[in-house]
Amino acid sequence: MRRRLLAALLALLALPRRALAQPIMNPAPGIDARTINTPQGALQSILKGASMRRGRVRLELPSAAENGHSVPMTVRVDSPMSEADHVRRIDLVSEKNPVALMASFFLGPHMGRAEIESRVRLNGTQRVTALAQLSDGSFWFDAADIAVNESACLDGG
Amino acid sequence: MTARIQVPPEVRRGDLIEVRILIQHPMETGFRYDSLGRQTPRNVIHRFECRYGGVEVFRASMGAGIAANPYLRFFVRAGESGDIECRWVDQENVSGFASARVTVSG
Predict the structure, then answer these.
(1) Which of B16, B33, B61, B88 is best to mutate for the A interface (most A CBs within 10 A)?
(2) The domain at A36-150 falls in which architecture?
(3) Domains (ranges, CATH) in chain B?
(4) Is there a contact between B71 and A156 if contact means CB atoms under 8 Å apart?
(5) pTM (2 decimals)?
(6) What residue of A is the nearest CA neighbor of B48?
(7) Is A120 within 8 Å of A71 (Cβ atoms)?
(8) pLDDT tens digits, one per residue of B47-78
(9) Domain residues of chain A, as ranges?
């Protein structure tokens, strides 16, 4: 018993200091700031307790990339983009990047088509999630897996 | 900050305007060290917005997860002839602006 307690204490001390001092990005009320920078934390801060369903969103990434400095990304949502029924926002969440929430796009009925293309940085092989919120408040997502040979974030990129 | 914005010069009312913009910016992650071992501070374009005929149509909040020299392609539904105006600002408060004229027919 005492040995187990000692092991637990040692494990706590061994926690990397960075894990305890993660950057805080606009934590929503009721969200633990320590988890905000994890993929789950980033998703929770947007969902605020709502559930998300897979579908309507299509996230396109190449299946593999030589390096993670600049990876083409397209996200589109099946939506008429009318006043009554449109996409409000799309968030990109990374599983392995130092900052989980990569970007948030705020859309509206003036866009006519819910499709955004950009280039992203990826810190290694991972799953990227695109989360869309529609004007009725519902959340939909898609996830894409990508193999990255050489990470970004370590040098030039 | 230099940028290049591309839109079709002429579209029909109700059609989609494809907006493509490329901004020259390092999008510093804050995880890079220079040759003297000093950390390069994070500096990314964190806010981007696009207006069409004075109305905000698209806004983006970006982090270091967007690649250097950020590129964005999005769509705007053509209403009246007018300017597509993009504005952005980075974390050193340096802002940029690019605009393009769209002529709407029909």
Answers:
(1) B61
(2) Sandwich (2.60)
(3) 3-30+40-105 (2.60.40.10)
(4) no
(5) 0.84
(6) A105
(7) yes
(8) 999 999 999 999 999 999 999 999 999 999 99
(9) 36-150
